[in-house]
Amino acid sequence: MKLTSEARFSTVCIHAGQEPDPSTGAIVTPIYQTSTYVQDELGVHKGYEYARTQNPTRFALEQNIAAIEGGKAGFAFASGMAAIAAIGTMLKSGDHVIVSKNTYGGTFRFFDKVLSRAAITFSYVDTANLDEVEQAITPATRILFVETPTNPIMQLTDLAAVAALAHRRGLRLVVDNTFASPYVQRPIEFGADLVMHSTTKYLNGHSDSVGGVVVAVRDDDIEWLRFVQNAAGGILGPFDSWLILRGTKTLAIRMERHNSNGLAVAQLLEAHPKVTHVYYPGLTSHPQHALAKQQMRGFGGMLAFELGSLEAARRLLNAVRLCALAESLGGVETLISHPATMTHAAVPVERRTALGITDGLVRLSVGVEDLDDLKADLTQALAQV
Ligand SMILES: Cc1ncc(COP(=O)(O)O)c(C=O)c1O
């Protein structure tokens, strides 16, 4: 079962990083639930000494996701935030980072409340606007941290343009690719240096694991991340690694359905009189629809829509039956949420309002259920708004 260099995306998802188990031939990589490994004699072992440093299940996942993203190496962590924290260790006191202005609330909180204590500074800019990015660069800037599409307003950044700018100015481009998934968008192809995911979302895809991964291309980054993963120790455990490996096998077919259901639900909402606005890059009304077609394969399963008031949002959220009111995203089941009081509650209200995260905004992670059932549920719930 050798992958050729011509293997296409869904083949890579299923096979990369995974060989039948050498001891039994098990076709699925086993869960190596062990903390240590017996050594043959002093100084002689099979390449495995201690499980924080080496675990075959985690290694299989790391190779699998690195191949899926088109990178050289991957490093799996206990959560998406732990993956971002590992990237944060590349910075030192006095460094400056430019960040997409409506980045995930937890990322903002980590930068604002944790890294800032080490005198690392951040500028939050509209990374869709290259002039704004360029103006924010200072001699201390090291990293451009981009989320595209953003959560929950679905704003895009032109990856090729921003990568060219970052490299011209000697910066690393880091892309949080959680919202799109590597089926929809592969930032390394556009020049990103590091790609991170909350694997909790589309990569695992079944809402039953929390994890994170960083994929790197530069040898110096790979060396540092390997060192930090072991030194700081925020590793992903073997069972979660196995769950995510199971998830990535079906990434391509799940994403095809997320894409088609996402577009159809966005169109349904856009045509509904009680919905004042829909944020979805697959709609021709999205101001960056042309860019979406250029850098995305399909438009994903995430969208947000405006109902005008907290009361209207509350009525909808209480009326849905199939859509589950919950944080998180990217699972096979459709989740509905209220960013202002849930995912973005940590973002100060003035900042939230400036970003368009109003009290009437509702976010949907459109799952892979039968489309007619999703349409029926949203239609009956909107009738109660
Ligand atoms: C875009 C994005 N990045 C990072 C994270 C953090 O990931 P985790 O919850 O796995 O720590 C999330 C979580 O919702 C997210 O949506």
Question: What this model shows, in words?
Answer:
With 385 residues, the chain is of the alpha/beta class. The chain contains 13 helices and twelve strands. It has helices at 9-15, 56-69, 80-88, 105-114, 130-136, 159-168, 219-232, 238-249, 251-270, 289-295, 310-319, 349-355, 371-383; strands spanning 73-77, 96-100, 121-125, 141-147, 172-176, 194-198, 212-216, 277-279, 302-306, 324-325, 335-337, 361-365. The protein has a seven-stranded mixed β-sheet, sandwiched between helices. β4 (141-147), α6 and β5 form a beta-alpha-beta unit. The longest helix has 20 residues, at 251-270. The mean pLDDT is 96. Bound molecules: pyridoxal-5'-phosphate.
